[in-house]
Write a structure and sequence with these properties.
The structure is a single chain. With 386 residues, the protein is an alpha+beta fold. It folds into 2 domains: 85 residues, Copper amine oxidase-like, N-terminal domain (Copper Amine Oxidase, Chain A, domain 1), CATH 3.30.457.10; 234 residues, Aminopeptidase. Helices cover 30% and strands 25% of the residues. Strands 4-5-11-10-9-8-7-6 form an 8-stranded antiparallel β-sheet. The protein has a 6-stranded mixed β-sheet with strand order 13-12-14-17-15-16, sandwiched between helices. Strand 8 and strand 9 form a beta hairpin. Helix 3 packs across helix 8. The longest helix has 24 residues. Bound molecules: zinc ion. Zinc ion binds next to loops.
């Protein structure tokens, strides 16, 4: 149990109490990696060049100095702020600790993790909005097909499934969110395929949940007034990150496409939904090889199977606190599947690509308010922000 006392807060367990020492740097709160290691019971970090490794046999983290990119339990995550050295200490922002690391390191302690009975599937685009286009077809059609493949898989596992569209029609983003918010005991999964006009060779999977309050989205590298999300968080934020994690670990664990990472964005469907919500990008239609795979119905079935397993893992966590499988668990399950070479940040991914979806779906928050220093809730306390 974590308690907040005055300006400091600490964990009290039967054996140890680890106090948090918040380090203020330019008005922002940071915590040292040593402090984080102690709190979560990691042995001392191993430093190898710019990589900082933590492993306690249960969880594994690799930070990369001066980078927002980390590996968390074997998959890439994008922090809101870089990890860096300050006064001889490696520091991580409190927002990142509270909003990205904590939910994934201790998923069974996520507050308000409600039972899941219904999955709202949201096939992206539709009608005149074709989405991305490859030499083989349109994103809107692939997304709808993926949702149609997922629906019976989820129903077979006892989920109720609601679709935001069942045919090739345009559904406004606000309406999609309204459909999601009208369901109870539910989660929202938006299905998309990726595109970029910056890098024709870009491939791989990525998944998004809402940008934390006081933080920039993943593709924004400069910290400007406009880049910082000023929208209040919701009670579902921590659950959304963990839903991202469950689906993403299953996708990468079953299908060996490039790991672009667990990311953050202010897509309308993520901003406007009040239930745990994620947006999955299952490969690039602008890359020749991947666009050919996506055009193959058998490939889309594999995607549906993997996403279904991830959703089922999230339900097991929410319903019975069962720890979700991670990428290495899935790879071990593969018949004869030796674990692939361990990923390392020695060769980090290219900086986040601005996908075309970003351009048309991410809009700055309405009513831009004067900038205030964000005050995220302390780690471990309720994730709800004022
Ligand atoms: Zn899309």
């Amino acid at each position: 149990m974590l308690c907040a006392i005055g300006g400091s807060f600490f964990v009290s367990q039967l054996t140890a109490a680890v106090e948090w020492h918040v380090i203020k740097i330019n008005g922002r709160d940071f915590l040292s990696v040593d402090n984080i290691a102690k709190f979560y019971g990691f042995p001392n970090p191993t430093i190898n060049g710019k990589n900082v490794d933590l492993n306690n046999g249960k969880n594994e983290m690799q930070f990369h100095l001066d980078s927002r990119e980390i590996l968390l339990n074997g998959v890439r995550n994008w922090l809101s702020f870089p990890v860096f050295v300050h006064d001889g200490k490696i520091v991580v922002s409190r927002i990142d600790l509270a909003k990205t690391l904590e939910p994934q390191l201790r998923p069974n302690m996520i507050p308000k993790l409600d039972r899941v009975r219904t999955v709202v599937l949201d096939p992206g685009h539709g009608g005149f909005d074709k989405g991305a286009i490859s030499g083989y077809g349109y994103e809107k059609d692939y997304a709808l097909d993926l949702a149609r493949l997922l629906r019976p898989l989820l129903q077979a596992k006892g989920f109720r499934v609601v679709m935001t569209r069942e045919s090739d029609v345009f559904v406004p983003l606000e309406l999609r969110a309204r459909i999601a918010n009208a369901t109870s005991d539910s989660i929202f999964v938006s299905l998309h395929f990726n595109a970029t006009d910056r890098d024709p060779l870009a491939t791989g999977f990525e998944i998004y949940s809402l940008t934390p309050r006081g933080a920039p989205s993943t593709y924004e590298d400069g910290l400007t007034l406009a880049s910082v999300n000023i929208q209040n968080g919701t009670e579902a934020d921590a659950a959304s990150v963990e839903l991202s994690s469950c689906i993403y670990h299953s996708l990468l664990g079953h299908i060996g496409e490039f790991d672009r990472g667990i990311k953050r964005a202010r897509f309308a469907v993520l901003r406007l939904t009040k239930i745990p919500a994620v947006l999955v990008e299952s490969g690039f239609l602008t890359e020749r090889g991947e666009s050919r795979l996506i055009a193959n119905p058998g490939w889309r079935q594999k995607l549906a199977d993997a996403i279904c397993t991830g959703i089922d893992n999230f339900r097991a966590l929410a319903d019975s606190k069962k720890p979700p499988l991670v990428v290495a668990d899935y790879r071990r399950q593969k018949p004869g599947g030796a674990a692939p070479e361990k990923e390392s940040l020695v060769n980090p991914a290219a900086p986040p690509t601005l996908s075309l979806d970003m351009l048309h779906s991410e809009r700055p928050s309405e009513n831009p308010a004067p900038f205030q220093t964000p005050t995220p809730s302390p780690i471990g306390s309720a994730p709800v922000e004022p």
